[in-house]
C-alpha cells in the first residue's frame, strides 16, 4: 500500500564575507562615553574617576579578516497519495557565524589593554583614560538554529468532473527561531537572544520566535478569457518578543521589562494578463510549389511528394501586439491599516524597522509589458 512520496534532504555549506571599504578605512566617528556606571567604560585599574568623559574614536580596521560561516540543514518533503496536490515540508537548520566584524563596547579593549597597544590613551600624570580607539574587530560569534515549515495545497477544480472553475493554491509558510546565541568577545560566554529585541553589535533588530504567512490564490480556468485572472490574499504574522529589556531595566524612569505585541497584516492583490492568440496566416514556404508539395528523392531512387510544414511563429499585429503579454495589477497592502507594535527600546523610531513599517494602508496600480 502506497502512502505517498517521502523525500529526505540534507545540505552542508561554508561561506565567507570579506570586509567592506568602510570597514577597512581608518577614518571614523568621535563620541564621548562616561567612565564607570552600567552603561559606561569601567577602568579595571581604578585610575579613572567615575563619570569622567572618555573620548572614543569609532574607526575601521585595515587588518580585518573575512567573516566565515558554517551551515548545515536536514529535512523532509511529504506528498500524501490520498490528498492530491498537497505537499508538506520541514527543514531544521543550524548556522555558525564566526569572526564577525563589529565595534565592541570598548570594555574588551580596556580589559585587554596589553593586547591593543596604543588603543587606550591615559593621562601621563593621573593614569586616567582620556581617549579610546575602538576599531572594528573580528570578535563576535553567533550560533543560530531554527525550523522552516511549509504546506502547499493546489486544488484543480476540473478533477471533480463538473467543469473547470480554475485552480486554487493555499500556502502556509513559516519559521520558528529556536536558538540565537551571541558571543560578543572570545573570552565571554554566549547568551541567548531568541525571542527578544537585539540592539547589540553586530546585531540591529529583533528576533521573534515565530514569523509566518498564509496565502490563498485563484487562477482562472484555462482556455477561457478568465485564464489571465489571478486573485489572492496574504496574511503576514510576526509573533511577540521581549523588548530591549536590558536597556529598559537600567534606564531611570523607563517602562521596565515589557513584551512587544504580535503584528498581523492582510494584503490583497488582483491581476489580469492578456494572452491573445495570434492569427495563423497562410504563408508560402521557400523551395516548395504553390500547391504545397515538393518532390524529394528517396534512398531507393524513387521520388516522393512531401508536404510543406511551416513552423514560423506569426505574432499578433497592431493593438493586439501591444496588448498581448500585458499585465494589469491592482493591490492593497495592510488592508486594515494596522500600526506597528510599539518598541520602547527603539531609540527614536518607536518600532523595529527590520520587522515592520509605518506607511500603513498602501494601494498600488501596476502595468507590466513583456516583449
Explain what you see:
This protein is mostly beta strands and 371 residues long. Among the domains are: 1-84 and 94-141 and 173-194, no CATH class; 280-313, no CATH class. It is built from 4 helices and 20 strands. The strands form 4 sheets. Strands 1, 2, 3, 4, 5, 6, 7, 8, 9, 12, 13, 16, 19 and 20 form a 14-stranded mixed sheet that branches. A two-stranded antiparallel ribbon has the order 10-11. The chain has a two-stranded antiparallel sheet with strand order 14-15. It is elongated. The mean pLDDT is 85.
Top keywords for this entry?
single chain; 371 residues; mainly beta; 14-stranded mixed beta sheet; two-stranded antiparallel sheet; 48% strand; elongated
Largest sheet: 14 strands, mixed
Strand content: over 45%
Overall morphology: elongated
Integer average pLDDT: 85
What is the CA-atom radius of gyration, in angstroms?
32 Å
Number of helices: 4
Layout of strands and helices, then pairs:
Blueprint: E1 4-17, H1 21-24, E2 28-34, E3 53-59, E4 67-80, E5 86-103, H2 107-111, E6 120-122, E7 129-156, E8 167-183, E9 191-192, E10 196-198, E11 205-207, E12 210-219, E13 229-238, E14 241-242, H3 245-250, E15 259-260, E16 263-273, E17 293-297, E18 303-307, H4 319-323, E19 326-333, E20 362-369
Parallel strand pairs: 3-7
Antiparallel strand pairs: 1-4, 2-3, 4-5, 5-7, 6-7, 7-8, 8-9, 8-12, 10-11, 12-13, 13-16, 14-15, 16-19, 17-18, 19-20
Amino acid at each position: 500500500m502506497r502512502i505517498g512520496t517521502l523525500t529526505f534532504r540534507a545540505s552542508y555549506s561554508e561561506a565567507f564575507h570579506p570586509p567592506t571599504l568602510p570597514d577597512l578605512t581608518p577614518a571614523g566617528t568621535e563620541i564621548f562615553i562616561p567612565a564607570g556606571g552600567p552603561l559606561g567604560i569601567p577602568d579595571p585599574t581604578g585610575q579613572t574617576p567615575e563619570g569622567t568623559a572618555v573620548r572614543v574614536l569609532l574607526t575601521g580596521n585595515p587588518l580585518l579578516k573575512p567573516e566565515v560561516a558554517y551551515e548545515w540543514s536536514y529535512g523532509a518533503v511529504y506528498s500524501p497519495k490520498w490528498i492530491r496536490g498537497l505537499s508538506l515540508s520541514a527543514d531544521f537548520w543550524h548556522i555558525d557565524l564566526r569572526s564577525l566584524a563589529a565595534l565592541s563596547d570598548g570594555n574588551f579593549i580596556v580589559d585587554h589593554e596589553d593586547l591593543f597597544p596604543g588603543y587606550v590613551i591615559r593621562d601621563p600624570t593621573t593614569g586616567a583614560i582620556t581617549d579610546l580607539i575602538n576599531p572594528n574587530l573580528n570578535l563576535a560569534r553567533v550560533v543560530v538554529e531554527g525550523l522552516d515549515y511549509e504546506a502547499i495545497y493546489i486544488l484543480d477544480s476540473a478533477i471533480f468532473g463538473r467543469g473547470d472553475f480554475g485552480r486554487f493554491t493555499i500556502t502556509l509558510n513559516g519559521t520558528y527561531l529556536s536558538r540565537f546565541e551571541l558571543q560578543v568577545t572570545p573570552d565571554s560566554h554566549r547568551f541567548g537572544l531568541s525571542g527578544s529585541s537585539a540592539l547589540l553589535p553586530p546585531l540591529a533588530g529583533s528576533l521573534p520566535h515565530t514569523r509566518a504567512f498564509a496565502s490563498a490564490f485563484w487562477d482562472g480556468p484555462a482556455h477561457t478569457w478568465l485564464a489571465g485572472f489571478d486573485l489572492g490574499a496574504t496574511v503576514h504574522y510576526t509573533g511577540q518578543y521581549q523588548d530591549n529589556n536590558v536597556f529598559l531595566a537600567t534606564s531611570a524612569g523607563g517602562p521596565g521589562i515589557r513584551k512587544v505585541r504580535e503584528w498581523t497584516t492582510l494584503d490583497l492583490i488582483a491581476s489580469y494578463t492578456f494572452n491573445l492568440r495570434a492569427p495563423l496566416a497562410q504563408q508560402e514556404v521557400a523551395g516548395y510549389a504553390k500547391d504545397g508539395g515538393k518532390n524529394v528523392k528517396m534512398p531507393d531512387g524513387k521520388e516522393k511528394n512531401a508536404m510543406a510544414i511551416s513552423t514560423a511563429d506569426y505574432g499578433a499585429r497592431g493593438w493586439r501586439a501591444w496588448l498581448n503579454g500585458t499585465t494589469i495589477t491592482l493591490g492593497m497592502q495592510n488592508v486594515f491599516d494596522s500600526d506597528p507594535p510599539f518598541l520602547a527600546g527603539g531609540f527614536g523610531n518607536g518600532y523595529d524597522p527590520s520587522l515592520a513599517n509605518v506607511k500603513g494602508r498602501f494601494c498600488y496600480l501596476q502595468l507590466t509589458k513583456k516583449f
